[in-house]
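INFO  loader      accepted 1 record
INFO  loader      residues=431
INFO  predictor   begin
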Amino acid sequence: MNEYDSNRILDLTKKINYSETKNIDKANCYILNTCHIREKATDKVYHEVGRLKKKFKNKLKPIVLVAGCVAQAEGEILLKKEKYIDAVIGPQSYHQINETILKLEKKSNPINFTEFEVIEKFDSLNLVKNSCNKVSSFLTIQEGCNKFCKFCVVPYTRGAEYSRSIDELILEAKQLVNNGAKEINLLGQNVNAYNYKKSRLSDLILEISKIENLRRIRYTTSHPKDFTDDLIEVHKNCKKLMPLIHLPVQSGSNRILKAMNRKHTIEEYLQIVKKIKLLNSKINFSSDFIIGYPGETQSDFSETEKLMKEVRFINSYSFLFSARPGTPAFDLKKVNQEEAKSRLIHFQNLAEKIKIEYRETLINKISSVLFENKVNNENRYFGRDEYSNSVIVESNRNLVGEIKKVRILKGNHNTLFGEIDSNLNQSNYAA
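INFO  predictor   done
INFO  writer      dumping tokens
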């Protein structure tokens, strides 16, 4: 979502004659777009601003703005502690960025835009064409969260759940496809909580799937509580919807899930997985895990390992519990950190073993790959298969934007390597 936000900020600033530079030395305005989901995010802001101060020590200072969730959570502190920062702009206020920059050009006092104005923000953005021209593009359909998991800062930095209208989303999706997008990834902090005038995520997916030249649809990130039967049904019927579902579970222990206020049990989570698999056996899952949540015992951790072995997530993101200021879990007594780190290492080794075993099943198999870009200046092309696995092939012709059937030859931790299968139909292949 930060990548989507950054692209839209760039679209907005074009209206006041700013353009992107890849050379920091040439910057008149420096915007640091931030995420607050992990610990030490604020420290990274100070580090980055310190680096900038050094770079411009004997030059004209650029306008410096901190945007995003760190700005929302700690804006006043940032402005007081680091005078080099000219303004802070929260994630629901970045439609004010042009006004902010123009004021700062006139040597205005430090500015703090951190009010929740999500409706006004998207009303403003709808007037500015999305210029992103990537083969795989992001589209924010929903922001905010009403779940209030005790560890999570999102409700305090992004606000309550808000869903954009289907009409504006279809219009923006068409813009992206006209720009060259073959795949659209629908984004939301709670993407399957999307609900606009009783239209749900399933309805939006079906509408977007009607767009000509759009070949693939993905969405992230889902909450188990909002995984309704109509959404499950779409995974059976919509051929453009990719068969990988990212469904964060956080823990395999019902006791810890309750302590987290996750609002679902492991039994309910497994029932969702079972229902989806029954309708579409091709589907695989990825997930998020928090290891060492306050109160987690070895028995709770063993339940998380058990879940990993049962579902066999083909990809997972696991972290030690990160206490976020302002959340209910911030003041809870932490698990012994050495023990927590040991559990995390053990869990990640298990997750990696399952991932490797899954990837070994792909060797000598055919995958459908959407190619996104050329690798450096070589005759190699990068793409992703239906399950978001990175794939690289060699080719003497431009593959960008095309879907090809690829035979996987080998792989490493991050990437699969293959060759275009010349015996199979390579044109107009619908994933």
